[in-house]
Design a protein that fits this description.
This is Phosphatidate cytidylyltransferase. This protein has about 375 residues and is mainly alpha-helical. Helices cover about 60% and strands about 10% of the residues.
Length: about 375
Amino acid sequence: MASFASFVEISRYNLIPLSVTSLCGCPCRLLSNKTLIPTRRTPKLKLNFVFHGSKSVFREVDQGTVLPTTKDSFSELQHKSSQLRKRIVFGLGIGISVGGAVLAGGWVFTVALAAAVFLGAREYFELVRSRGITAGMTPPPRYVSRVCSVICAFMPILTLYFGNIDISVTSAAFVVATALLMQRGNPRFAQLSSTMFGLFYCGYLPCFWVKLRCGLAAPALNTRIGAGWPFLLGGQAHWTVGLVATLISFSSIIAADTYAFLGGKAIGKTPLTNISPKKTWEGAIVGLGGCIATSVVLSKIFSWPASLVSAIAFGFLNFFGSVFGDLTESMIKRDAGVKDSGSLIPGHGGILDRVDSYIFTGALAYSFVKILLPLYGV
């Protein structure tokens, strides 16, 4: 009795049965000159064929891993496109809202900042309680985290009305530390350190934006835009050093993030740090150039600061603060084992993901204008 074996050719899209031939002789009897793959009876090999439309798509399942098909790639492309649209729409909305709050100043700017601080503080303390940071330690009690979030939100408001809140911050830190030390169980130093850093990071540092925007009320006398500003909206006196410095600082940070992202995508090769592997030195250099250029151009438009060297230094300082804040938040998220600090803003993640570049920059910008610039740069 003759033995038989089937031969199958696997092409890119189709599975083509060729022939059934006798093995009494050799396979050279086949008339086809195409490469033939003999199938063998073995329990270890399992091929699953999935057909879509007029073409046959070959999918191999190996230990639960499914190779992506054309349909999967199309769905992924649609998802990325949808995320990009959300990112652009919500980014524009946030930019317009923040710009309006900065122009308004006073309690409008302060309340908007306090709301962002409260949401950011909640995200921070949730990260502290997550699996990465809390590995090997007992997280702070939830009621302490909530109280600290409220304290952080009140700090910008107290700064607006009292100017100096050092005593208030110290008192709040003392009360929180006492609550942690008096809790049931065994208090941990990690609880105290993470909570104190949260008060400093989420509450105290953002207050410098209130000091910069609302505290530096010296008029920017040479501002061309201020000369044509409507009298009902404050007239030329509305354009203070604090307003102009805040607008330039915010715009420079946005430029730094944008140019760093585009530069990293285009020519980025050398990783900047292990904390955030996607950031590159090439992207950072491009971001620095974009940040300084934005600072110089806006200084010419607003006629502040008067010195070109001061404008370049201000741009460099904004870039340094934005990168430092970004890397700090990346370190926190890395320890927490999460990609985003939250999901409040579609396409952007959480509040901390959007404001991380601004947290340290406010203190640097305020100190630069207040201490280093003669006559506040006018």
